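[AMINO ACID CHAIN]
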Amino acid sequence: MSSTQMTPTDTATLVEQLDVLADRLDAAARGAGDHAGLRDAGSVLHSIDRLIAAVVTALMSTTHAAVITAEGMTTTSWLRAVAGRTSGDAGMLPAAAERLTDMPAVAAWFADGTLS
């Protein structure tokens, strides 16, 4: 396993940390009563864009047939049923993965958060 690959335990820990961050940002925004948390919110949105790009990269690395074989459902169905995505997200994410395969420069901008 390369140093960039994560184990399920690493992923679970990261998700827990993201949940804590969401709770803290929410509490700060509710307690501030002004725009004090807006800069933090912008930083979090940038990170979310990068996380979505990572998901799209993961979708780019698998095939529709592989998802059906492994999960017993289509990629779109998996995104809706397992990942809890809206139908819009379930359509957008695989479409982005498909399009970005042929657009390496745009894919790089998407991955580093330049584009969302």
In short: The first helix runs from residue 8 to 32. Residues 43-116 form one domain.
